[in-house]
Amino acid sequence: QVHLVESGGGLVQAGGSLRLSCAASxxxxxxxxxxxxxxxxxxxPGKGREFAAAINWSGSSTVxxxxxxxxxxISRDNAKNTMYLQMDSLKPEDTAVYYCAVSxxxxxxxxxxxxxxxxxxxxxxx
Length: 126
Hints:
The protein is mainly beta. It is 5% helix and 48% strand.
C-alpha cells in the first residue's frame, strides 16, 4: 500500500503563491518508489477531477496541464519521499481541492492512478 498526505493548502489572494506538499509512505512505495510517477490533480465544486502536473522518479520528466503551465512547478525530494507543487500567479479559477496520487502507468490519465491522498483545499480570492 501507499499512503499519501497532502498539506499546504489555504486561502490566498489572486496573484499570490502557495506551496503544496505530498508525503508518501508505505511498504509498497518504499520498495518501488523509482517506478512511480507522482501527480497532482484538482477538483473544483461541481466539476470532475482534472490533471494538473506530474513528475517521474528522477525529476527528469515533468508534464503540466495547459491551464497551469508557466505558473505551477512540480518537484520531488526522493530522500524525503515528498512531492511539491509550487503555485504562483494564482487565479480564482485555481480554486479547488488538490490531490496527490501515484501511478505506475500514466502521467495524465486519472483512471490510471492507483493511490490517492485525502486532498487539501486551495481557495483563491479575487
